[in-house]
């Protein structure tokens, strides 16, 4: 378990590392596959969130998922992508977190994901934004470079019955 005091020194509030939905490239499930292909090509990300008309996360889509729909054994038919919708793909299930998630849980989920979808709650899944692995690693890196063991009060992270001791 990561001590909450140490965790707060790395990320005090998830607002600090949240990329708001307004600043995230995402698709609606009713968008055509050709639209999805164009968006993914422009943003240069390998995968982006997909939301429904109520701004609820329904999955993640990649450029490979869309291109596979255009390719057959005999032909590549990009016109086919105009008539198919994002919601007809087998979308990848995203990893969800809420704004109350702790750093340890976030780190655990980021091991296998480049980003986590932040939702209002796990029931509604209203999309608030994302937290990226890159952003969390930058925070940890900054913490490690600005913090010296001499600056940490050992009793901050030890049982309450110990005296304050400074590491020398």
From TrEMBL:
Coiled-coil features, chain-numbered ranges: none
Superkingdom of the source species: Bacteria
NCBIfam families in alphabetical order: CBS_CbpB
Protein name, entry field: CBS domain-containing protein
Domain CBS span(s) in chain numbering: 92-140
InterPro entries assigned to the protein according to its UniProt record, in alphabetical order: CBS_CbpB (IPR048125), CBS_dom (IPR000644), CBS_dom_sf (IPR046342)
Pfam entry (one): CBS
Organism per entry: Facklamia miroungae
């Amino acid at each position: 378990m990561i001590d909450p005091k140490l965790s707060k020194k790395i990320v005090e509030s998830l607002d600090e590392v949240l990329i708001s939905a307004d600043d995230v490239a995402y698709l609606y499930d009713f968008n055509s596959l050709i639209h999805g292909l164009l968006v993914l090509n422009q943003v240069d990300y390998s995968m982006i969130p997909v939301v429904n008309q109520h701004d609820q996360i329904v999955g993640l889509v990649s450029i490979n998922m869309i291109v596979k729909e255009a390719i057959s054994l005999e032909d590549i038919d990009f016109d086919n992508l105009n008539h198919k919708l994002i919601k007809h793909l087998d979308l990848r299930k995203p990893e969800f977190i809420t704004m109350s998630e702790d750093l340890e849980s976030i780190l655990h989920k980021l091991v296998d994901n480049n980003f986590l979808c932040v939702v209002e709650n796990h029931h509604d899944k209203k999309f608030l934004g994302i937290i990226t692995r890159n952003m969390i690693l930058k925070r940890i890196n900054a913490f490690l470079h600005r913090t010296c063991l001499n600056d940490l009060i050992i009793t901050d992270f030890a049982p309450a019955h110990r005296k304050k001791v400074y590491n020398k």
